[in-house]
Design goal:
The structure is a single chain. The chain is an alpha+beta fold. The protein folds into 2 domains: 13-55, Alpha-Beta Plaits (2-Layer Sandwich), CATH 3.30.70; 62-364, no CATH class. It has 14 helices and 13 strands. Strand 1 and strand 2 form a beta hairpin. It is globular. The protein binds flavin-adenine dinucleotide. The site of flavin-adenine dinucleotide has 33 residues, from helix 4, strand 4, strand 6 and strand 11.
Length: 400
Amino acid sequence: MESITERCTGCNACRMICPQDAITMGEDEEGFYIPIINALLCIDCGLCVKRCPQNQKPRFRRNEVLQVLGARYKDDALLSKSASGGVFIGIATMILEQGEGAVFGCAFDENFVAHHICVMDFKDIAPLQSSKYVQSDIGYTYSQAKLLLDRGKTVLFSATPCQIAGLYAFLGKDYDRLFTIDLVCHGVPSPLLFKRYLDWLGKKYDGKIIYYNFRCKEKIGWGLGYKTKIKARTKIKTKAGFAENDPYYSAFLKGSTYRECCYYCKYANTNRIADLTTGDFWGIEQAHPQFFDKRGISLCLVNTTKGEELIAKGNNFELINSSLANAVLKQWNLKSPTLRPDSRDTLKKLIGGMDIFNTPLFKIAYKIRIKSAIKTIIPSSIVRFIRILKIAIVAGNRKR
Ligand SMILES: Cc1cc2nc3c(=O)[nH]c(=O)nc-3n(C[C@H](O)[C@H](O)[C@H](O)COP(=O)(O)OP(=O)(O)OC[C@H]3O[C@@H](n4cnc5c(N)ncnc54)[C@H](O)[C@@H]3O)c2cc1C
């Protein structure tokens, strides 16, 4: 038994490509999904290595983005459950309304393990909404998607760019009825780290985690705010706050916890792999102040004519035309992969140990705790006003 490649993204394509079923997915010492070859079944056909998207030039769909949009879904209830402006749910709704469609996306299971699943009925779509900042297990969803496509169904597949690359590598071709959405992506932590975090959180609040949302808009509106519920002996405790005040989330944002391949990601640029790319339209206050909405605005890159068709059909979005210059303004990962900080080495040493979330790697500085507490008290409208005021002052100074 041996692992296939050091730059492996854990996309599962090789497992589904293998004609001998000789590949299973295991975990490396940090808990990331890796393919394991069973030498007894392997016939050395080399397909796994040949078709692995990490061993090929990325199959970019376009050399340049066709349209750059700011987008907000018009349905308030569904928008409130989306991480940003609801591009995913808007397109998913359109596909499912046609009656012959299937939507693949990431959902937590009952143990908060992120998996890709297939939804064919709109009533089941909710778990797919919002970002799970942990690597998702693709399982056999590429094969499932192929089966549906071969039967003439319309398929929407939403995932990280490396997972979308895995899907195309598995399919070996594009389909007219296949639509793909990739994300602007920082990188992904391992399922093991997230499990250890939830265990730590449960211990801290003396109960079991029964809800976790990385992008809860209830308290702070659109931004990086989490909410969790813990079932304790006599009551359900609810905790919510800003990302920077949470050990797992702040380490995620600092880039200290990603899979090694994320620091060399070949999709962290504007030559995208999917029909559409979505992310948060950070910096919209600067680029298009009139379009800012505290309920959330998505950045949407339209990369193919199929992507253009989807957007043109969707009459349920508020849209604004923007530019690539605006898109990359606050999106480091549209320019290059996340820089690997030295602290990444520390994680490797710590992951197997006890009380990892009480170590300096995950410690939140007092200054940040205080800042975050103040932000919680001040209404988001005032925070936004201060932000716009700062932008206006900087712009005024530049003119002078
Ligand atoms: C790991 C990760 C890193 C990200 N990094 C950035 C970033 O640096 N900058 C930025 O602007 N945006 C980033 N995003 C995207 C952002 O968080 C929103 O997902 C995006 O704005 C789309 O939001 P939405 O409102 O359209 O839909 P949402 O309802 O929020 O989108 C849901 C869909 O996103 C996909 N998704 C969610 N979690 C995962 C996962 N773990 N793996 C694969 N697919 C997943 C699923 O298919 C899901 O159905 C990241 C997302 C993830 C998951």
